[in-house]
Amino acid sequence: MTLRVGIVGAGISGLSTQHFLEREAVRRGLRVQVETWDPRPSPGGNVRTESRGGWRCEEAAESILNSRTETRELAMELGLSNRIVQASPLAKKRFLVWRGKLRAMGPGSIFGSFPTWSAKLAALKEPFVARGPEDESFADFGRRRLGKGLFEQIMDPMVTGIYAANPELLSVRSAFPRIKGMEQEHGSLVRGLWNARKARSRLPQERKAGSGSYSFRGGMTDLVEALAASLGGSVFTDQPLVRLERLEHGWRLHGRDRMADFDRVVLALPSHQLGDLDGLPGHCRKDLCAVPYNPVAVVGLGYRREHVGHPLDGFGFLVPRLEGRKILGTLFTSSLWTDAAPEGHVLLRTMVGGGRSPELASLSENDLVAMVQGELAELVGARGEPVFAHVKRYAQGIPQYPVGHHLVVDRLRQELTPLGLFLAGNAWDGIGVNDCVAAAATRARTILEGA
Ligand SMILES: Cc1cc2nc3c(=O)[nH]c(=O)nc-3n(C[C@H](O)[C@H](O)[C@H](O)COP(=O)(O)OP(=O)(O)OC[C@H]3O[C@@H](n4cnc5c(N)ncnc54)[C@H](O)[C@@H]3O)c2cc1C
Questions:
Q1: Mean pLDDT value across residues 187-212
Q2: Which end of the chain is more exposed for a tag (fewer CB within 10 A), N or C?
Q3: Which of these, 33, 32, 36, 54, lies nearest to 45 by C-alpha position?
């Protein structure tokens, strides 16, 4: 018997689910027939690289962390090993804006004037702070464990840099499971980090998680293009799912001009787009569509090198809310990948909006460019007009897991899995590309169990 699986959404989550399903089925001697549908003209979802005139600018993910290996292994299976490019070692240096100036972060900075001495002293109490509730907002967690000062000066910009989220609303457990896990397991972040370090030192070299991040020679688009190419004609673009119909055994999917029956269906589209579908189980609909997404704009600006005063010798900078600026942070893209800008030029990629100032993400492209230009002039001494600009606006860009999200996800999976429906995508299992790929591998095994 052949198991028919329909995947709705050809972002990295949907495409990698199909890849792992097909690979795992071969390994288990099972027969599967998989199709992936997406309304866009090309697969890849938000992962897209804009390449023109010697500039290479990402619209969403800039790079993949080396700290996990799932995506790298997938890339190897796809024959991309010689296209993997490590970010420059410069990327280890990160900056924060403090009192209007860029400050380098790092072990040495702990002895300087930033963070403030009162914040550092308050944080010394961390090992003695009692364990907190099962889940709480990232802001409550940060203030409780490390004090208001360190939260505002370091943790708030950190969460903004990853989730573009409002830390008062973001679940620490779902967004930062490792950090919350340290508290639960070791009673303290300091003890958790110390124990993790000791455990790591005992591992053989080849099993140690790497630091830094990587991308591909043609940018992140190389990964989704290679994935889609390896799946051949079973990825249907320009094909939105409009309706699901429950059958006695399985589901009938109705697309714009395609209809097909499947034993199992993977919903790999954003949670906010699930609301547009007819035929979802009524009792789950509210929870399925309830994950809020923050609007975000990505503004890539290119300058002649000599028109930017700062050495750009790092990954980029983040902006704490206290600074009252209009941007969330900027990546020094051409310092990470020297070929991302033409010779003698630099590329800076700035995030705007998020949970902190959502209204700014919907400014016109011209206004966004002008605003970012003004901020970069003050912060890194960028002078004159940029010679390259690329703007990508997301009305609903990055999911912001609410406190208690894990309970909703567990409940939904308990309800949907027996019906042959599987949840995928960054609304449920983490937002990083590594999270999406790791969840896809697990999902493929779950789908094949009992097949
Ligand atoms: C600005 C930004 C920066 C980021 N930076 C990083 C980073 O540096 N590193 C990192 O690891 N991650 C980063 N991320 C996160 C990461 O890129 C995403 O979480 C990941 O790409 C999400 O993939 P996905 O497949 O879950 O969802 P998506 O990419 O959103 O794909 C969902 C797909 O579903 C499709 N769809 C919608 N409606 C339907 C329908 N009715 N029928 C069929 N299909 C439908 C959509 O067209 C889309 O293709 C960033 C994200 C953003 C927005």
A1: 79
A2: N
A3: 36
Whether residue 66 contacts residue 212, with contact meaning beta carbons closer than 8 Å, is answered with yes
Q: How far is the CA of 214 from the centre of ligand 1 (A)?
A: 18
Cβ contacts of residue 343 below 8 Å, gap of 6+? none
Cα–Cα distances (Å) from 124 to 99, 111, 129, 165, in that order, read 24, 14, 10, 27
Based on the fold, state whether residues 314 and 395 are members of the same structural domain: yes
Q: Does residue 308's CB lie within 6 angstroms of at least one atom of ligand 1?
A: no
**H helix runs in 39-137, sequence order:** 70-77, 117-123
| 391 and 297, same domain (yes or no) | yes
Residue whose CA is at the smallest distance from ligand 1 atom 18: 431
User: Which residue has tokens 């035929």?
Assistant: 279
Judge if the beta carbon of residue 227 lies within 6 A of ligand 1. no
Q: Give the per-residue pLDDT at 47.
A: 98
Q: Is 438 in the pocket of ligand 1 (CB under 6 A)?
A: no
Is 215 domain-assigned?
Answer: no
Global pTM value: 0.94
Q: Supply the range of the domain harboring residue 10.
A: 2-46+222-291+401-448
pLDDT tens figures, 278-302: 999 888 888 999 899 999 999 999 9
**Ligand 1 center to residue 397 CA distance, Å?**
8
Residue nearest to ligand 1 atom 5, measured at CA:
61
CB of 35 shorter than 6 A to ligand 1: no
The CATH number of residue 268's host domain is 3.50.50.60
Is 27 part of any domain?
yes
